[in-house]
Amino acid sequence: MDESVRNSTKLDIEGVRQQSATEALRAESEPKESYRKLGEPDVNRNGFDATTTIRAENGHHAMPRENGTGAKDGEEERMLNGAGVEPSGAEPTEKDKLAQKEVEVKFIPSQNGDARIDMELESQQALTGMTKEELMKYANDPFWVRLRWLLFVLFWALWGAMLLGSFYIIYDAPKCAAPVPLSWWQEGPLVELDGERQFADQLPEVERYGAKGVIYRLPADETYLVETAAVQGKLKQLVSTFGTKDVKVVVDITPNYVTKEDALFQEALQKPDSVAHSAFVWREAGMKPPNWLSIAEEGSAWKNASNNQYVLSQFGADRYDLQLGEPAARDKLKATLKALLGQGVRGVRLANAKHLLINRDGGDEAPMNLEEADKSLTHTDYGFWTHKETTYREGLGELFRELVELVHEQTDGEGFLSVTEDILRPEVFAVNGTLQMDAPLYGNIEFDLREGSGPDVARKLRHDIENAYRTISEYAVVASGAGSGKPWLQLRYDRASLEHVPASEYTVFHFLLPGVPVFPLDVLARGNVSSESVETLEKFRATPSFQHGLFNVYTDANASTIAYTRLKSGNPGYFVVLNLASTDQKTTFDFSGIDGIGSELTVVLTSQNYAVPNVGVKTKVPVDAVPLSPKSALIATYVPTK
């Protein structure tokens, strides 16, 4: 097949007779016209179908033609502009409907003689807007003038309203609560004074170690004598001596009993039907009293009184227990607290807190459970019995709520109320989920550290630290206008606590635990703890990471050392580690498992026993190989990774 036939075949499209290349070029220069495809009726009308054949004449191929009568060229195409009228009675097909749409036909020549036909629907007539002259006819129309002014005023009114609204949102939006600063007794430390020494002689040491408060233990028999001249003079001297250095005074009292000379007890003896009589616990003469034992001495806790009755005396001879559930006894304790606070005391700790309420009608005590009992004890020992009638009685929470509210009210939220012993059962001292004291003493941290080294001491210490803080964090505290909303533990230790852990190491490890360190003055002085290290620790305690940061406890990969972190977002974290081992079998410890700690630590403080060569303050150490000496402690900072 020659080139002309091949080109003609390419131009064979549905419903359109192809033109020669010359005609296509001429048609391109002529005005464009619209065509439609011949419908089936038109084809039938001309007497041929849509089948095409190619005939050869004289050995040459001819242009394709439709079989039939041999319609002339162009007869199959009809002009749409007025020429495409369908015969009457014929229903147009879908193709006819599409063919009736105006089509723009373009003939595009190519260099090799081929011609390409491009067919496009003509665009609908474009929608044009009004001209300027047409618009100006309405410029002064009253309706449009009013509408323009209305929209103008409405726009500026809405703009002004949004501006004022933004100011109101900024002003009235809830503010992010600023972290509540710690109160003086939370900042600590609190130092226990030596009652045998003059107050003035202890002031320089207290000042050197940066104590925020001192604790004076008032002799137990003087608890209800604070309004006497002798005790008042002693307390005034105490407050004035340490007040010159802005050191607050805390007093320990023993509110459980009065002596035989006390006016309330004398009134109770003389007037069996008086209110004073109900402030004590009695048993009628001739009746065997319960088997309650004395705490301070061997034998029964019941004593014969001069009125021929038995009276409860758990704390020794001539000391008679108050029943603080009764108004007369409770008012006596409140009067004592007011007297102390009125003389400038800013903190009070109560001794023997679990004994403050007694079941006046209680019967015999039951022995301890065999699993809990000390097998070496007998029925004559105090620890053999459960003491459910005289300890942890229901109502302790209500009693402490009255007392702590009194202290806060009398000191405008500056003072605090606490205890001197481990409360053991915090739920007894709580009311509706609120622990009714400011700084409880709770947990086995001190006891674990007393055990010193051992194969599982680090694991046990971690467990007890986590348990103590988890348990105590379940309670809120009575709002006092200062401090945090959670109980702030007392972290107490004394010379007996240092049997296995030296004073410097104990202090470094203890000071950044959540709570306030409480210790006798001689612990630091005799333990050769430098004032510089304590000053550095107090600076760390003033940082956001300590005061408001998260607290987590860890052991190393082999669970042989104990560590914890303190971290507040946006601040450097603190990493504190204590090596309890007494041998140097291993000198580096892996803490890379701590989430978010980073790969490097910067040492900021070491204890006295720390003796790793080339490691000191500002030294960087890898977190997966922290170097530690036996019985040593270290504090480092780190940049959290997330």
Automatic annotation (TrEMBL):
SUPFAM superfamilies: (Trans)glycosidases. Residues 25-43 have a biased composition (Basic and acidic residues). Coiled coil: none annotated. One of its GO terms (molecular function) is alpha-1,4-glucosidase activity. The chain crosses the membrane at residues 149-171. GO terms for biological process: carbohydrate metabolic process; L-alanine import across plasma membrane; L-leucine import across plasma membrane; phenylalanine transport. Keywords: Membrane, Signal, Transmembrane, Transmembrane helix. It is an enzyme of class 3 (hydrolase). Its EC number is 3.2.1.20. The keyword Cytoplasm does not apply. It comes from the Eukaryota. Residues 199-541 form the Glycosyl hydrolase family 13 catalytic domain. GO terms for cellular component: apical plasma membrane; basolateral plasma membrane. Residues 1-75 are annotated as: Disordered. InterPro entries: GH, GH13_cat_dom, Glyco_hydro_b, O16G_dom_2, SLC3A2, SLC3A2_N. It catalyses: Hydrolysis of terminal, non-reducing (1->4)-linked alpha-D-glucose residues with release of alpha-D-glucose. SMART domains: Aamy. Pfam families: Alpha-amylase, SLC3A2_N. This is alpha-glucosidase. It comes from Anopheles melas.
